[in-house]
Every structure is written in structure tokens, then in C-alpha cells.
Amino acid sequence: MTDLFLSAGRGPQECAWALGRLLDRLEADAARRRLDTTRVETVPGDRPGTWRSALVRISGAGAEAFAAGWTGTLCWQASSPYRPSHGRKNWYVTARPHRADVVVTPFHETDVEFTPCRTGGPGGQHRNKASTAVRATHRPSGHVVVVDTERQLHLNRRIAVDLLRRRVAEDDEAARRAGTTARWRIHDELVRGDPVRVERP
Predict the structure, then answer these.
(1) CB atoms within 10 A of CB 160
(2) Is there a contact between 90 and 200 (Cβ–Cβ < 8 Å)?
(3) Which 3 state secondary structure label does DSSP give 176?
């Protein structure tokens, strides 16, 4: 299984139209080779049947070799369907493999450093006399929490560990979303070069 990312970049609307034609051609070509394709995510163009970008998952024997054959700058040659008098007939789309790496930071309680401390505020004399609060530092990520909600140190330690575990998981989720955002930002770019594949309708 492999993922292929196709983008019309910042090209004119004809490039988004060309991407739609190329997607159909890619899927038909894959079906002839007994490969399965799924459009995982798409960014539609301004007109029906057009796409600014698409992420296609290809699965089956030989999926990686098939995707490699579709990688590079693709050129669809045809007259503009929107501007018949326009002289240009070459519309470019880029295609590149995409690895969806899922970031998962392992969380071990042994990586947490605990320091008993006192905190101020309301709560009476028991709160101020005993060091029942805890300052917990997750060394790999640098996250620090101070917990003083309970009057017993071991309960505050347990709460601190849960909070740190949640923050590390939130970091992983933010990194995953940032990766997705970066991937879709690619559709604003278009790497021009010699077409590696020329498609005609």
C-alpha cells in the first residue's frame, strides 16, 4: 500500500480540470493492473469535477512501482474547456509519494521527576504546613505541572501523571494536524520541470 499526493498548485483552473482527468486515468490504469485506489482526501476546485489536490491510496501487489510511474510533473495536453480561444494546451500537475507518519511519543512514568512543594491560597493550616503539593516534570517533553488539589501527596502525584500523559498526547495530535496542514499547503506550490509523463485525452 502506498499514498500518492497530486496537486494542481497555484495553476489556472485548467490545471484543476487536468487533475480531475488525470485522477480518472490513474484509477482506470490501476484497475487494469488489479490495484485498488481510494481517494483519501481531496480539495475541490472552483468548478464541478475539478480538484486542486488529492491524496490517493493505492493498494495491491506492485502498488509502489505503480505509484513511482505516476510520480513527477504530469502534463495533460488539451485545449482549455473554459477559454476556447486560449493558445495554451499544456496543463501541469505534480504527483509525489506521501508517507503518513503517525507520531506517537511513548510515555513512561519513570521519565517524570517529582518535587514535593507547598502552595499558597485558601485551604487552611493543613495546606500551608505540609508539602502535599507536587511539581512534576516530564523530562523528554519539558512539560511541567503543579498539582495541589488533594491533601495527600500520592493522590497529587497520580493526578500530575495523568495531566502530563494528556499533554504529551495533545502534542502528538497537534504534530499530526500540523503535518496534515503542511501536506495540504503543498497544493499552493507547483514544481515546474520537464514532464515525466504526457497524457492526452
Answers:
(1) 24
(2) no
(3) helix
